[in-house]
Known about the structure:
This protein is α+β, with helices and mostly antiparallel strands. The protein contains two helices and ten strands. The radius of gyration is 17 Å and the shape is globular.
Amino acid sequence: MHVSKKSTGVLTDGPPARRRYIFRMGSVRRHVHIDRDPDTVWKLVGDLARQHEWFPLTGCRVEGNKRWITLPSGITFEEDIVTHDHSLRRFQYRMVGNPGITSHLGTCDVLDDGRGGSTVVYSTDMEPEALALVIGGAAGEGLARLKRIMETD
């Protein structure tokens, strides 16, 4: 897994009362090839209330353009669904309402490999960057589980 640093973590210049720390943003991308057609894979991946079936979560709840995910630890995160496009087979979301997360955009794409299979790409841009590593690890685990589910059905 590679984490790209989009900006540097620095203390801004200026009078002490106006200085602030700028976090580094981490960018993580994971992918997996699945020997199933993209529409079949999208039926599971594109059902945002079912992400816990393949990603390391214990629950998902969707209401309109909002989603709440629950981690195995019991912690729940609120998300805004930014994009849910069935023709592109793409969803994007932002974690919101968490003071420890300065910025976040997660994207999942199910791509046609041109040979009857799929490539699923899960990427996250997140500030602070250390949390991108956590999501990157979870994405790797989730994509491996998705592959097992899709290729054994």
